[in-house]
Amino acid sequence: MTLAGCSDDGGSGDDGSSDDGSGDDGSMDDGSDDGSGDTSELEIVHWWTAGGEQDAFNALLDGFREANPDVEVVDNPAPGGAGSAIDAVIQNRVIDGNPPSTFQIWPGQALTPYTNEDLLEDIGDSVWDDEMRDAYLDGVVELSQPAGDLVAVPINIHRLNNLFYNVSVVEDAGVDPSTIDSPQGLLDALETIDAETDATPLAHQTQSPWSSLQLWENVFIGQQSVDDYQTLLDGDVEGLEDEVRSALELLADYLEYIPEDAGSITWDQGNDGLIAGDAAFLHQGDWAAGQYEGASDFEFSDDWDMVPFPGTSGVYHSVIDSFVFPTNNPSPEATEQFLNYAGTVDAQERFNPIKGSIPPRTDVPMDEFGDFLTRQFEDFQNSDSQPPTIAHGTGVAPAIHSALDETFANFNGNLDVDAAYEGIRDAF
Ligand code: GAL
Question: In angstroms, rounded to a whole number, what is the distance separating the alpha carbons of residues 157 and 389?
Fold first, then answer.
């Protein structure tokens, strides 16, 4: 629960050139493929195609190509917010022994189906040298080794508990977001926006269940505490029945104030409404801020701003992305080159300012991160806790996660608190 505050200094060990020196194949055989041997074609599967995320990914690839001109990158996205479409693709390919070179995955619990079956290479020596280990936040290193071996390279830290808003819309309604001090207070603000303006109060999507699941997580923490949330993650849902129901009831109330077409839009389409001044608030991870950075005439502080989700101000509810080295790898050398690069200062300095996240290395210069991310970084450093999330896979095993997705898909349609409570209890 403590990613921040650990780890130290850092020298500058960066540059991004990686190299590593291990070039001599031999080791990584792992009984793989088909005799075609290693190629320098690197296939990457990820879901960063929405809301400016593609730009961040391209910036990462540009840096990688500069450092490794010999490798040809095959960019093979599986679009869908919060990885909603990637599992189906990746799990089958990995199980069938036909994985891509690397793929995007949350570190922590999300890795366990793969580590349980030994489907990820131990990259503790080939990638995680001492320089890199020293530079990373200790908590992030821990998430990269859920079964002991280091198997992932985290590249960012997003914050989930953000309440973004369009400045002029809330001003028109006479709402001051900085004074909303509880999840219930947010409902009052949504009612005021609805009464005083033509804007949609909350730019929320329900096409896919993850945004409601993550909002419920934040309502729960805002109403209760991180300790109760941790108890929930540990599986004691029945001991917290009233609290779980209370968060569901308030979520159902919020869902009265979302776009009419919420069921057919993606998260970034909802956010387009906020940018256009057609919506007031958005609860979303700070990948939404990456989208604002890419929008024209939409400036931080003048046009948009954010407060921590009401009731969660000392919390940095963290969402982390990483890349891994699947066994049976079609391109062992190129994969190692990419993972080495992803762990550098250069990679994280290019990627994160555009993505709307802060780096998991402690030695990345923050000059290019802009005012918003500089403030997020300070919040991170001053935060009391950085719990993992459910909707973004670090905090619960994938089987629990997918049962909860199903529960919240139903809840989006029927707002049935009893059924959702039972779904959550049974999921855990
Ligand atoms: C998260 C992921 C973020 C962002 C978001 C929206 O799960 O960690 O990087 O892509 O989904 O799709």
Answer: 12
Q: From ligand 1's centre to the CA of 123, what distance in Å?
A: 24
**pLDDT digit string, tens, across residues 56-75:** 999 999 999 999 999 999 99
Domains of the chain: 41-158+318-382 (3.40.190.10), 162-308 (3.40.190.10)
Name all residues whose Cβ lies below 6 A of ligand 1. 47-48, 53, 81-83, 158, 285, 287, 319, 321, 392
What's the CA gap between 419 and 422, in Å, rounded? 5
For the four alpha carbons of 230, 232, 233 and 235, in that order, the dihedral sign comes to positive
Give residue 384 CA to ligand 1 midpoint distance, Å: 23
pLDDT in tens, 145-155: 999 999 999 99
Query: Looking at ligand 1, which residue's alpha carbon is closest to its atom 1?
Result: 82
* Contact partners, residue 176, CB within 8 Å, separation at least 6: 170
Ligand 1 centroid from CA 192, angstroms: 30
pLDDT at 17: 35
Residue identifier of the C-alpha nearest atom 2 of ligand 1: 82
Taking the CA of residue 411 as centre, how many other CA atoms within 13 Å lie in the half-sphere pointing to its CB?
32
State in Å: Cα 37 to ligand 1 middle. 33
Segment 170-176 shows an average pLDDT of 98
* Burial of residue 409, with CB atoms counted within 10 A of its CB: 0-12 exposed, 13-18 middle, 19 or more buried: middle
pTM of the model: 0.91
The pLDDT value given to residue 4: 52
> Ligand 1: distance of its center to the CA of 27 in Å?
34
Lowest-confidence region among 11-20, 93-102, 231-240, 336-345: 11-20
